[in-house]
Design a protein that fits this description.
Distance between the termini: 65 Å
Strand content: under 5%
Number of domains: 2
Number of helices: 4
Radius of gyration: 25 Å
Helix content: over 70%
Mean pLDDT: 90
Low-confidence stretches: none
Largest sheet: none
Length: about 110
């Protein structure tokens, strides 16, 4: 807590000094300031225009095939492919849950 108080008291002065250093050409100061106001993105948008829509759980096979082809062609990285595959799998699970709920409702209606 004592360090927080000391830091809080000097924060405005330290910030002003960093801004002045950055304006004076200190690239490290500029980098520190910019990283706080404009953080680096953790990923990039992935465009897969040929990705088929998933309306049933069995559509996952074709969708994953498209993702695998994009990774193989170098259109997306393997990490991006894994991320897209995880999203597709979550969509498959949601479709399965919705299908099961509908089936249960139909059974209960009988």
């Amino acid at each position: 807590m004592a360090l927080d108080a000391i830091g809080g008291d000097a924060a405005a002065e330290v910030l002003q000094a960093a801004v002045m250093a950055a304006k004076g050409g200190d690239m490290r100061a500029a980098e520190l300031l910019l990283s706080r106001v404009w953080p680096a993105r953790n990923g990039r948008p992935v465009a897969l225009p040929d990705l088929p829509s998933m309306t049933t759980a069995s559509d996952l096979v074709a969708a994953l095939g498209t993702v695998a082809q994009a990774v193989a062609a170098g259109t997306i990285t393997p990490d991006e492919g894994q991320a897209v595959a995880a999203i597709l799998d979550a969509q498959r699970r949601a479709i399965e849950v919705a299908d099961l709920a509908a089936r249960i409702e139909r059974l209960e209606a009988r």
